Amino acid sequence: MRRDVFQAIADPTRRAIIGLIALQAMTPNAIAEHFDTSRQAVSKHLQILTECQLVKQEQQGREIYYQLEVSKMKEIDKWLEQFRKIWEDRFSELDHVLSNLKTNKP
Amino acid sequence: MRRDVFQAIADPTRRAIIGLIALQAMTPNAIAEHFDTSRQAVSKHLQILTECQLVKQEQQGREIYYQLEVSKMKEIDKWLEQFRKIWEDRFSELDHVLSNLKTNKP
DNA sequence: TATACGCGCAACTATTCGGTTGCACAAATT
DNA sequence: AATTTGTGCAACCGAATAGTTGCGCGTATA
């Protein structure tokens, strides 16, 4: 099964997990405490996040700390880039219209 | 069925449609020509995109033009914002380390 | 050494997803 | 008036999804 970043962030729980571990690495158990699902379910989400490299693991004794791979988030940003250009253009169009209205005021 | 932007952009075909109509509005038939699926399948995608307001319709005779609601794309951008801050911090941390290495060079 | 703990993996299940085909309906064209 | 065209909608289907429970395997702790 092919995993990509966009499919990974489609699930709200997964986005919440990303938000959680963004600031500091956490173990599956610690993460699961924040949700209304089983540890195994969280484990599955972490597996999916790992598969598309949004998350990396660091074993520490019998605990595994999961940390966000922030750089991978840029992939989404990169896709948005093309549209950012458009919405900035739309804004400058609007600016143009507005300034025309201004100068043509009686 | 609850639709949100993140679930909408999870599908690659949907992302391609978004890319297609970003620059100019198109009819379902015109869009379908770009893909290897039926017009009805495209119609379904457009329905999903409409449900989460990523796309708006404009009837013109018997044709319906679908146009990207660029502003809605900002919702994704807004979510990325919190992580953008982190990855910029990571970069400045790196800068710091690098400049330390530099100054401490023999 | 025995026990408790943290974790991943496998099997099962209900639901959703993305696709198909067939149809109905309104708008254009003849 | 009859036909073609553009579209949405409903029914169906196989695959994927997100969850569950049960289990086994290392690693700590008693």
Provide a quick synopsis of the model.
Chains A, B: Pfam families: HTH_20. Chain A is mainly alpha-helical and 106 residues long.
What does this structure look like?
Chains A, B: One of its GO terms (molecular function) is DNA binding. Chains A, B: This is ArsR family transcriptional regulator. Chains A, B: It holds the Pfam family HTH_20. Chain A is mainly α and 106 residues long. The first copy, chain A, has a single domain, classed as Winged helix-like DNA-binding domain superfamily/Winged helix DNA-binding domain (Arc Repressor Mutant, subunit A), CATH 1.10.10.10. Helix content of chain A is 62%, strand content 11%. The first copy, chain A, has five helices and two strands; from the N terminus they run H-H-H-H-E-E-H. Chain A has a two-stranded antiparallel ribbon. In chain A, strand 1 and strand 2 form a beta hairpin. The first copy, chain A, is elongated. At the A-B interface, helix 2 and helix 5 of A face helix 2 and helix 5 of B. The first copy, chain A, binds a DNA duplex (30 and 30 nucleotides) through helix 4.
